[in-house]
Design brief:
This protein is of the alpha/beta class and 473 residues long. It contains 15 helices and 11 strands. It has a 7-stranded mixed sheet, with helices on both faces. It has a 4-stranded antiparallel sheet with strand order 8-9-11-10, with helices on one face.
C-alpha cells in the first residue's frame, strides 16, 4: 500500500510510533530553540511582534510544504511568542506549568485519539475513567455511597453542569444566588440555560457572608441554588463553606461549590482544612489544570448523589443502543454533555498514580509557601503595599501611593518589555498587581527579583520623561 509522503502517515496502528517519533524530536528541538530566542517569560515588543512571528507565510498555501520544516518553524514561532507558565516571572493567571509526565501522557492520548462517547471507541480509556473518577469521588465526598465524578473541559463547563442539575431537579424557576466574588461563568451558564440572572450578594470582605446568604435563601422556599467559591480568581479567597452548607440545608436549597482553584487542597494534609465543608455540597467543580499541573483542558465535576445523574442520561442507537447496554456494553453518554470527547483522563490518571496523594499535596504546599514568602517580602518593602495575606497562592500588591492608572501602566510596561507577566485585580476599590504562584519550583530569589523589577519599573515610569519639555523651554 502506498503510504504517500511522510506528512500523510498516521500516528496510530502498530507502526504509528515510527511515523510519530521523528516529529517528536523536531518539536522538542523547536520548543528549546523558541524558548532560547524568547529569553524571558514573554516576547518583547507586544502584539505586533507576536503577530510577525506567525505571519511569515500563507496560512493555506496552494501546495503543501515540507512537513518537518513547517512543524519546526511554527512550533518555534509559537514557543518564541509564548507566555511561559514555567518562568517564575510569568504569574498572572491560574495557568500552571504542566508536569512533563502529564504532557507525555497527553501525547499518547492524542496519538490514540480515543473518543469517550461510546465504549467501542475507547474500551480501556472508558474503564480507566470510571475507576479514576470513582476514586476522586471518594476524595471529595468520603463516605457517600452514590454519585460520581465527570471529566470536563474546566470550571466553565463544570459550573454550567452545576446549574443544569439544579434546574432539572428543582424546576426552571430555580433561583441562582452567588456572591460578587463568583466566577463570570456562573452568570453565563444561567443565561445559556435560560435561567433567571443570578441574584448577586455583596462580598465586601471578599467572601460570601453566611447571614446574608441565609436571608436571601429565605425568599425562595427551597427552590434555590447557592453557589459558593473555594478560591476566587482575583484573590484566591475561600467562602465559609461549612456555614454556607448549613444555610443551604436549613432552607432546602442546593449548594454548588466552584472549587476549580482550591478543590485540590484536599490532597494536602496541612491545607485541607481550608476547604472544610466541601463534602457537604451537592456538586463541586474541580480543575486539574490549575493546582494539578495538567495540560489544559483537565476539569472535573463531582456529584454527591446518584439521583442527580439521571438528568444526564441520553440514548442514541449508534452510540448506546438499548440491546447493547442490555448485553453489558457500557453506555458513556451520561458521563458528559459533550459527544466527541478525548481521553483527558489518561494524563490525570498517570499523574495521580505517579505522584500519589502525598506528591500532589507536597506540590500544592510548596506554592502556598512561596505565596506566603512573597507576601512577607512585599510587607518588608516600604515602597510596596500588600492587599491581604494570600488565601491560597495569590498575592495582590501595588506601589504605595500610586494611582490606579500608574498600576495599569506599570503592568503593561512589564508585558511589552517581556520582563514579567503580572495580572490585575480590583479589590477594596483599587487596582492591584496580581501574582498567582503555581510553579512549585520557584524560589525566594525569583520572588525578590520580581519585586525589584516592579519597584524599579514603577520608579522609572514615575520619573520625568527625558523627552518631556521642562517648564519655560
Amino acid at each position: 500500500m502506498d503510504e504517500g509522503g511522510a506528512e500523510s502517515r498516521l500516528a496510530g496502528g502498530t507502526a504509528g510510533h515510527r511515523a510519530l517519533r521523528p516529529y517528536v524530536e523536531v518539536v522538542l528541538d523547536a520548543l528549546a530553540d523558541g524558548a532560547a530566542r524568547r529569553a524571558g517569560p514573554l516576547p518583547r515588543g507586544g502584539p505586533d511582534v507576536a503577530r510577525r512571528l506567525v505571519d511569515a507565510a500563507p496560512a493555506i498555501p496552494e501546495h503543501g510544504e515540507d512537513g518537518s520544516a513547517v512543524l519546526r518553524g511554527l512550533v518555534r514561532a509559537v514557543a518564541e511568542g509564548a507566555a511561559d507558565p514555567a518562568d517564575p516571572h510569568c504569574v498572572a493567571h491560574l495557568h500552571s506549568p504542566p508536569l512533563a509526565i502529564a504532557v507525555a501522557a497527553d501525547l499518547a492520548a492524542s496519538a490514540l485519539n480515543c473518543s469517550l462517547d461510546s465504549w467501542d471507541q475507547a474500551p480501556a480509556a472508558s474503564e480507566l475513567e470510571v475507576a479514576t473518577c470513582r476514586s476522586l469521588h471518594r476524595e471529595v465526598f468520603p463516605g457517600s455511597p452514590g454519585g460520581d465524578v465527570l471529566v470536563t473541559s474546566g470550571s466553565t463547563e463544570s459550573n454550567m453542569l452545576g446549574l443544569l442539575l439544579a434546574r432539572e431537579s428543582r424546576g426552571p424557576e430555580t433561583a441562582v444566588i452567588c456572591g460578587e466574588n463568583a466566577h463570570h461563568s456562573v452568570h453565563r451558564a444561567a443565561w445559556l440555560l435560560g435561567m433567571r440572572a443570578p441574584r448577586v450578594l455583596p462580598t465586601p470582605r471578599g467572601v460570601l457572608d453566611p447571614d446574608a446568604a441565609r436571608a436571601e435563601l429565605g425568599r425562595d422556599g427551597g427552590r434555590a441554588l447557592l453557589v459558593a467559591t473555594a478560591g476566587t480568581t482575583d484573590t484566591g479567597a475561600i467562602d465559609p463553606l461549612e456555614e454556607l452548607a448549613v444555610a443551604a440545608r436549613d432552607h432546602g436549597a442546593r449548594l454548588h461549590v466552584d472549587a476549580a482553584y482550591g478543590g485540590l487542597l484536599l490532597f494536602s494534609t496541612r491545607l485541607r482544612h481550608l476547604v472544610r465543608g466541601l463534602d457537604r455540597a451537592d456538586t463541586v467543580a474541580l480543575d486539574f489544570h490549575k493546582l494539578g499541573w495538567q495540560p489544559a483542558a483537565a476539569g472535573a465535576f463531582a456529584v454527591r448523589e446518584d439521583a442527580d445523574l439521571v438528568h444526564l442520561k441520553s440514548q442514541v442507537d449508534y452510540l448506546n443502543a438499548v440491546d447493547d447496554t442490555d448485553a453489558g456494553i457500557p453506555s458513556l453518554l451520561e458521563r458528559s454533555t459533550r459527544t466527541t470527547r478525548r481521553a483527558d483522563i489518561l494524563k490525570i490518571a498517570v499523574t495521580l498514580r505517579a505522584l500519589g496523594r502525598g506528591g500532589i499535596g507536597e506540590l500544592i504546599e510548596k506554592v502556598r509557601d512561596r505565596a506566603m514568602d512573597l507576601a512577607a517580602l512585599v510587607s518588608d518593602r516600604p515602597e510596596l503595599e500588600l492587599h491581604a495575606p494570600p488565601g491560597i497562592s495569590t498575592v495582590l500588591f501595588r506601589p504605595v501611593g500610586a494611582a490606579d492608572a500608574h498600576v495599569a501602566e506599570l503592568r503593561r510596561c512589564l508585558l511589552s518589555e517581556g520582563k514579567a507577566v503580572l495580572g490585575r485585580a480590583d479589590a477594596a476599590g483599587r487596582l492591584w498587581l496580581k501574582v498567582t504562584l503555581l510553579n512549585p519550583h520557584a524560589v525566594t530569589g525569583d520572588l525578590e527579583t520580581l519585586l525589584k523589577l516592579v519597584v524599579d519599573t514603577s520608579r522609572r515610569l514615575a520619573s520625568p520623561r527625558e523627552d518631556t519639555p521642562t517648564a519655560g523651554a
